[in-house]
Every structure is written in structure tokens, then in C-alpha cells.
């Protein structure tokens, strides 16, 4: 039996949960077209619009942070947990934005109850000071207290374990929690906002700023790469007690009994829950960020297929990366951006790291040639593509990569002879340049015992079959070939 308030009320709605934003849109559209001049109707209209704008901005903050954290070509040397994010985690965090909908509903209820008591100007500098004081004095200790309680046996097993079920923290992990936890978190966010407004120091800019900074800092703690330089804390030592780092919060995910604070480590110091490795580990990661990490054992050199598939990259729309390729209607407005990006990549970009995974203790990386599929069929683009591939091969050789595999059009016979162009040009390469056919041939030959004297090949004659047959002949193995295409008595050939 599920614990009370552990599941979201709209879990069964799927994507239809976004229809719950409908009343906000309908109220805004209706009121904006209404000729009624009552002041409260205008305020209601304005607030519905502000709530919708804030929701869009919050989604943008989380998505931007997630894109940044998955740009491995920028963050690979700064990653804290070295493992990659698998599709299971992506699926589990699919509804990460539930809390935005919840807080939109709670915020609208708060407005309707207090709309006659609150007057919000566009700007009031005093409000920023008041909300900062309320956050430090109330929200920070309140969050610390509740967070520590949620690490108790019952609350952790029934509620907080969902948040910790993500093996690699990501910005979307910040929103991945149960309904009860986000009700409490909504109260923690709401207290400084409500308090500032009731004291008469509230403003629209203050609300926008506080909510978005709150989300920004939550994403910072879950981004899984160290972005704050250690020199900052060496210059201003006390600052490390006022702002946490990604390393600091990652330690909470790996060693759950420490580092409970919201954003300010001073509360862990006061509560004696500070992980002693926090700043030492942060300094180490920050220093090592300029050094290359582990050299991959295998590199798969891919390319971009088309504009639609480009949006399935983990650092564009992460959720698309875990679903079969398909074109969504809401992606169509982004196609002009992809089109412009294609020309920018054509002019300036180099081969970059896209994804990686570990298999049987070996590191496998996918590097991408910044070219789209149709560009491989443009005669004037062939030289530039081959230069990109050659640079990637030489880079892999310099790093000490054992094998680099050319994918799809990168091994086009008309383009570079299946990679022979580069092997012949650089005969002293230590890295093995292969592609799908050579890898398949290698696997088949590996399965043939060394003491075999005769091999029977069946099937239509192919480039792969010819390569296997010729290699076996060099080993003095007798090869018999049968081609079933011809409806005649089997024809056996001796090589």
C-alpha cells in the first residue's frame, strides 16, 4: 500500500496533466477580452498571465541547466560522478515538472485569498533585502529540519527514496520527488514571498527573481559537474559557508547522512552534519578540471542524420533521447534554429564528444562529426568532411585510443574508401580504424578456432564474405562457398 501523498494526483493523466494549465489561459484570455473595467478583474487577469510566464521561465531554467550539464564536450573533465545517465533514469524523471504545476495552483490560491491585502508594484528594492532575510532566517533552517526528517527510516523509504533513486544527479533530478515533499518545499518557497508581500515590501520583480534564483540554485546543486572555482573560496573563505557547490550536494547523494542544507552549508555546520570531505573534494575536482580524464578504449565516430534527429541529442531535448525517433509538432518551430546552427557548425565546429558509456570495465565514447547526412552527398563538402574525420583519427591516436569505428556515411566508399584513405596516409597509426563490416568480420573470425582446416560459407556473395574468405585463405584454411541465389546444384569453390 502506498504511503499517503506519495503519488501525484494527476499521475494517471500522463501528458494530459498540462490541460490543468487551461484555466489560467482561459481566465487570462476571457478577462483580457472583457470590457469590464473592475480593478479586481484586471488584477486577476494580470496574475494569471504572470503565473503562466513564471512557469515557462522555470521550465526554461531547468531545461537550460540540463542541456548544459549534458554538453560533455564542455563538462567532461568537470563531472563529479563519472557514470553516464541511462534511459531508465530519464524515464523515471519524466514528470520532473510536476512541482511547477503544483506551485502554480498553490500560488493562484494564495493570490485569490489575499488579493485585497497585497499591492504589488513592479519594483521595490527593500523587498529584496526583506526576502533575503526571511529566506535565511526561516526557509533555510526549515528546509534543513524537514530534509533531515525525511532521511528517517519511514519517511525515507516511503517518500525521499524516490529522489535518491537517480544514480547520477541531473538538473531534472531536483524536481523528481513525491507529492508530499513538494507541498512542503512549496511552503518553504512561499513563506519569504508571502511574508515580504504582507509586510508591504513585495514587488513583481522580487517574486520573479526569488523563484527563478531558487530554481537556478537547485539546478546548480544537481548538475553533476563542478562549475564553481576553488579560488573563489580561497579568496573569500567565509563564502563557502553561504553557498553550496555541486560537489557539496553530490556528497549528500552518495553519503546520505550528511550535507542536508538547502543552499547554505552553515546550517550543516551548526547541525553537525557537514561532510568533512566537502571542500577538499571540491578543491580537487576544480584543480583537475583542466586535465583530461580517462582515455576511452573505443570511440564510435558518428555524424548527424538530419535536422529532426538533431533535436534528439541529450543536450537538446534529453527526453527525446530515450524514445524512438519521431517528429513532434511542438519541435517544428525549432527547425529554423537547427537550420542556422547547421551553418554555424559547418563553418566553425569540430568533432565533439556527444555520449559515453562503460561496458565490461571499458570506456566507450561517441564522437560526432558536425555534418548532417545530406552534406555527405555534396561534392564540394567531401574534402572538409574527410579533414574532420582525419583530425578525429589523429586525435584518438594521440590520446591512446585503441579502436575508432567509422559509422554510416563516415565510411562511405566514395568518400574515403571505407577509411583506407586515412590508414594509407598515416601508416604508423596505433589506433585501429574500423567500421561495421570490419568489426563483423573480426567477430566472426574470432569465433573460428585456430586449428580449423576447412570452412563452409553459405549465402549471397558480399564484401564481408569475400574479406572473411580471403583472410582465411591467408591462414591456409580451405574455404567452400555456396551461393543459394542460383537454383542449381550447389557450386563449391576452392580458394
List keywords for this structure.
two-stranded parallel ribbon, 495 residues, 7 strands, alpha/beta, 21 helices, 5-stranded mixed β-sheet
Model description:
It is found in: Membrane. It comes from Datura stramonium. This protein is α/β, with parallel strands linked by helices. It is 51% helix and 9% strand. The protein has 21 helices and 7 strands. The chain has a 5-stranded mixed beta sheet with strand order 2-3-1-4-5. The chain has a two-stranded parallel ribbon with strand order 6-7. Strand 2 (352-359) and strand 3 (362-372) form a beta hairpin. Helix 2 (39-69) packs antiparallel against helix 5 (98-114), helix 11 (246-254) packs across helix 13 (278-288) and helix 20 (436-447) packs across helix 21. The longest helix is centred in the first third of the chain and has 31 residues, at 39-69. The radius of gyration is 29 Å and the shape is elongated. The protein starts with 21 loop residues before the first helix and ends in a 13-residue tail after the last strand. Mean pLDDT is 89; it is low at 487-495.
How would you briefly describe this protein structure?
The chain has helices at 22-33, 39-69, 72-75, 87-92, 98-114, 125-149, 153-164, 179-198, 204-221, 230-235, 246-254, 266-270, 278-288, 307-310, 318-321, 335-348, 382-399, 413-416, 420-425, 436-447, 463-474, and strands at 298-304, 352-359, 362-372, 403-406, 432-435, 454-458, 478-482. The chain is an alpha/beta fold.
Secondary structure topology:
Elements (H helix, E strand, L loop, with lengths): L21 H12 L5 H31 L2 H4 L11 H6 L5 H17 L10 H25 L3 H12 L14 H20 L5 H18 L8 H6 L10 H9 L11 H5 L7 H11 L9 E7 L2 H4 L7 H4 L13 H14 L3 E8 L2 E11 L9 H18 L3 E4 L6 H4 L3 H6 L6 E4 H12 L6 E5 L4 H12 L3 E5 L13
Parallel strand pairs: 1-3, 1-4, 4-5, 6-7
Antiparallel strand pairs: 2-3
Helix pairs in contact: 1-2, 2-5, 2-9, 5-8, 6-8, 11-13, 20-21
InterPro entries: Fatty_acid_hydroxylase, Sterol_Desaturase_Related
Organism: Datura stramonium (Jimsonweed)
Family: Belongs to the sterol desaturase family.
Amino acid at each position: 500500500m502506498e504511503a499517503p501523498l506519495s503519488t501525484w494526483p494527476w499521475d494517471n493523466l500522463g501528458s494530459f496533466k498540462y490541460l490543468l494549465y487551461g484555466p489560467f489561459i482561459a481566465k487570462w484570455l476571457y478577462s483580457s477580452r472583457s470590457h469590464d473595467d473592475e480593478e479586481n478583474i484586471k488584477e486577476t487577469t494580470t496574475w494569471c498571465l504572470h503565473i503562466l510566464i513564471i512557469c515557462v521561465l522555470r521550465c526554461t531554467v531547468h531545461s537550460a541547466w540540463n542541456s548544459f550539464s549534458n554538453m560533455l564536450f564542455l563538462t567532461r573533465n568537470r563531472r563529479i560522478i563519472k557514470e553516464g545517465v541511462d534511459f531508465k533514469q530519464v524515464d523515471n524523471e519524466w514528470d520532473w515538472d510536476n512541482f511547477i504545476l503544483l506551485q502554480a495552483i498553490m500560488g493562484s490560491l494564495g493570490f485569490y485569498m489575499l488579493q485585497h491585502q497585497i499591492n504589488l508594484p513592479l519594483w521595490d528594492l527593500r523587498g529584496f533585502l526583506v526576502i533575503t532575510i526571511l529566506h535565511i532566517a526561516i526557509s533555510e533552517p526549515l528546509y534543513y529540519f524537514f530534509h533531515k526528517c525525511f532521511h528517517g527510516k519511514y519517511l525515507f523509504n516511503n517518500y525521499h527514496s524516490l529522489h535518491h533513486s537517480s544514480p547520477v544527479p541531473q538538473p531534472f533530478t531536483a524536481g523528481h520527488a513525491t507529492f508530499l515533499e513538494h507541498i512542503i518545499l512549496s511552503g518553504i518557497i512561499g513563506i519569504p514571498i508571502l511574508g515580504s508581500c504582507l509586510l508591504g515590501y513585495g514587488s513583481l520583480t522580487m517574486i520573479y527573481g526569488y523563484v527563478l534564483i531558487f530554481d537556478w540554485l537547485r539546478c546548480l546543486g544537481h548538475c553533476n559537474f563542478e562549475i564553481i572555482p576553488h579560488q573563489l573560496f580561497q579568496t573569500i573563505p567565509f563564502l563557502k559557508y553561504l553557498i553550496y557547490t555541486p560537489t557539496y550536494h553530490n556528497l549528500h547523494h552518495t553519503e546520505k547522512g550528511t550535507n542536508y542544507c538547502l543552499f547554505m552549508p552553515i546550517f550543516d555546520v551548526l547541525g553537525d552534519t557537514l561532510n568533512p570531505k566537502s571542500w577538499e573534494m571540491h578543491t580537487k575536482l576544480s584543480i583537475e578540471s583542466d586535465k583530461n580524464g580517462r582515455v576511452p578504449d573505443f570511440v564510435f565516430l558518428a555524424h548527424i542524420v538530419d535536422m529532426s534527429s538533431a533535436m534528439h541529442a541529450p543536450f537538446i531535448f534529453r527526453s527525446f533521447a530515450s524514445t524512438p525517433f519521431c517528429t513532434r509538432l511542438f519541435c517544428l518551430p525549432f527547425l529554423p534554429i537547427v537550420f542556422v546552427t547547421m551553418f554555424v557548425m559547418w563553418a566553425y565546429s569540430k568533432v565533439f564528444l556527444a555520449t559515453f558509456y562503460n561496458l565490461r570495465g571499458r570506456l566507450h565514447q561517441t564522437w560526432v562529426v558536425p555534418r548532417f547526412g545530406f552534406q555527405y552527398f555534396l561534392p564540394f563538402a567531401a574534402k572538409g568532411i574527410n579533414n574532420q574525420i582525419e583530425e578525429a583519427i589523429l586525435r584518438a591516436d594521440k590520446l591512446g585510443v585503441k579502436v575508432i569505428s567509422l559509422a554510416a556515411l563516415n565510411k562511405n566508399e566514395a568518400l574515403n574508401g571505407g577509411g583506407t584513405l586515412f590508414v594509407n596516409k598515416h601508416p604508423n597509426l596505433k589506433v585501429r580504424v574500423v567500421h561495421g563490416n570490419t568489426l563483423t568480420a573480426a567477430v566472426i573470425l574470432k569465433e573460428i578456432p585456430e586449428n580449423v582446416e576447412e570452412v563452409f560459407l553459405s549465402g549471397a556473395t558480399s564484401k564481408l564474405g569475400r574479406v572473411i574468405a580471403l583472410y582465411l585463405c591467408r591462414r591456409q584454411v580451405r574455404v567452400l562457398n555456396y551461393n543459394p541465389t542460383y537454383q542449381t546444384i550447389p557450386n563449391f569453390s576452392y580458394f
